[in-house]
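Hi F.,

I've been meaning to write this up properly since the lab meeting, where we talked about keeping a consistent format for the predictions we share between groups. The idea is simple: the sequence comes first, exactly as it goes in, then the structure tokens exactly as they come out, then a line or two of notes. No screenshots and no reformatting. I'm using this chain as the first example so we have something concrete to point to.
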Amino acid sequence: MSDPVVSVLDCWFSAASIAVVAVCPTWFPNMFYWPNGGASMAGANTPASNNVTVKMYDPVNLTPYNLSASIMNESTSEDTPGGSWWHQAVTQAFLELGNLTYVFGVLPNATFDVTGFASVVLTTITGKSGTTVKISEAYKTQDDLFNELSRSNFTPVVISTKPQTVKLHPQLSPNHDFGVMNTTILPDGTKNVTLRNPWGDEEGYHLWDVWENCYYVHHLTNWDVLKPGQGQ
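Output, unedited:
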């Protein structure tokens, strides 16, 4: 589920994609269709064609769009040529969507802006309203934050770090987005949050470190459940 990034600073896009895959692996296969009005590719290798139609949604009014992607346009730096190109297909569709309607994070030349919100990506992928909240304003206590991050078992959740973070091991990089994979409570009562770096590894962090070093939480507004077998 990693995005082998080299030069495109789109961690907010990749983290949101990973968060969706983590809770509902079938979602992405159900976004792909054979070109020219063809049938769904659900159940096939993803994507199962060199040219696909990808279904995504306007992030404001949720209007569905059928968008084109081609393996011929696959990035040689941001993905692994010759392998599964599902992430690149969704990336191409997302940028095309930003060329057809306003999508925060997509520039007029259909490339990524370094500034974007994972909640916008969650909406375009799922067709369900997304929201971004500031941790310092939305949660009174660490436990409040932990309880909502624990929803990541059934609904996609992404967290953003502050512009400056303290030195940790493993490190929480500043100005970076992570997919929230799960939460755990250890026998001694310590609360941990497992985060997936879209450009790296999956690591566990103490709740205190997440509380002190993170700024935003991005999620579906109604915490919609994405169940296995669901999709577009």
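Notes:
The beta strands are 32-33, 51-57, 64-70, 130-134, 157-161, 177-185, 191-196, 202-206, 214-220.
Residues 11-128 form one domain.

If this format works for you, I'll send the rest the same way.

G.
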